[in-house]
Amino acid sequence: VIIELDNAKRKIYDYVESRMRFVAPNLSTLIGSEIASQLMGLAGGLHALTKIPGCNIQALGAKKIAISGYSVFNASHKMGLLASSSIVAECPPALQLRALRQVAGKVALLSRVDCFQDEPSDSVGIKFFREIQEKIEKWQEAAPLKAPKPLPLPEEKQKNKRGGKRYRKMKEKYKVTEVQKMRNRMGFNVREETTEEGVGFGMLGQSGVGGQLRVLTKDNQKMKKLEKLNKLHIDRQRRKRRRGGEVSGLASSIIFTPVQGMELINPDLLKAKVKRANA
Q1: Is there a contact between 264 and 270 (Cβ–Cβ < 8 Å)?
Q2: DSSP conformation class of 244
Q3: C-alpha span between 140 and 273 (Å, rounded)
Q4: Looking at the domain assignment, is residue 132 inside a domain?
Q5: Rounded to the nearest 5 degrees, what angle is found at the Cα of 273, between the Cα atoms of 268 and 277?
Q6: Region for 236 from its dihedrals, namely left if φ exceeds 0, alpha if ψ lies in -120 to 50, beta otherwise
């Protein structure tokens, strides 16, 4: 029974294929009568084919392949019956999908032309076939070389330059400082100092070069700030001692006496009492 049904199906396809030049002449001219008949059979007729957009026509007849565990390199994506047409199959592999989209769009238009035209004619199909062939040939052409473009002649007329306070401020803001100049220079046979991030300092901080220039890193600045605060604290303590015999509470010692046992005394106060007694 299955063989009989398959034979009947083939007879129907052969009959439709033999009549395609009268039923759909433009479609047969573009993709061939065999593929056009199979396409109409899948769509359900020429009138049903006119209702399908081009993006869906290119996927008609595509086989669903289970690619689990296999390579997807050679798997054809959304390429159905139209991929086997001569105009698409003769294209280079890199341009086949691009050509397939063009053919699918033209098939959608030609199916409507064949369905609603009064007299059978393949003039539109021949026109579209030539258009697609020209596009494919143009895609394969090498890119045109860029012509050497000569530089424009320099203007001999001197341009007016802006002056004034604003322009001078702008120049001072963006001018290259001495520090930047020394940083951009490289000493001969001298190792360059760098930060932890690998940023170089050039000739900054090197002996004999730019005596007034030196590298100020964050650590150096912190140490200088701490030294300054420490110096201010020492000066403040000295001023307190000069005023009325005041002494720092940090200067003290512990002694043992037979009467009180452990006793905390201030040696500076003892020295002051001795001086007053001797005076």
Answers
A1: no
A2: T
A3: 110
A4: yes
A5: 150
A6: alpha
Angle between helices 123-139 and 96-116 (to 10 degrees): 170
Confidence of residue 211 (pLDDT cuts 50, 70, 90): very low
Report the alpha-carbon distance of residue 61 to residue 49 in Å, rounded. Answer: 13
> Per the confidence metrics, is the pTM higher than 0.90?
no
Is 210 contained in some domain?
no
pLDDT in tens, 112-130: 998 888 777 889 999 999 9
pLDDT at 28 over 70: yes
Query: What would the mean pLDDT of 61-66 be, rounded to a whole number?
Result: 69
Determine phi and psi for 53, rounding to 5 degrees.
Answer: -70, 165
Closest CA to 20 of 45, 35, 37: 37
Asked whether residue 224 is assigned to any structural domain, the reply reads no
236 domain residue, yes or no? no
Residue for token digits 């398959």?
Answer: 6
Residue 122, both tokens: 């393949």
Report the distance separating Cα 58 and Cα 81, nearest Å: 7
Instruction: Say which residue, 7 or 75, is predicted with more confidence.
Output: 7
Residue 23's domain spans which residues?
A: 1-62+77-140
Which residue's entry shows tokens 């000493």? Answer: 187
The C-alpha angle 199, 203, 207, rounded to 5 degrees, equals 130
How many domains does one find in the chain? 1
CATH number at residue 10: 1.10.246.90
| DSSP result, 54-98 | HHHHTTTT------TTS-SSSPPSS--GGGGSHHHHTS-GGGHHH
179 vs 39, 193, 217, 248, CA distance in Å? 78, 14, 14, 46
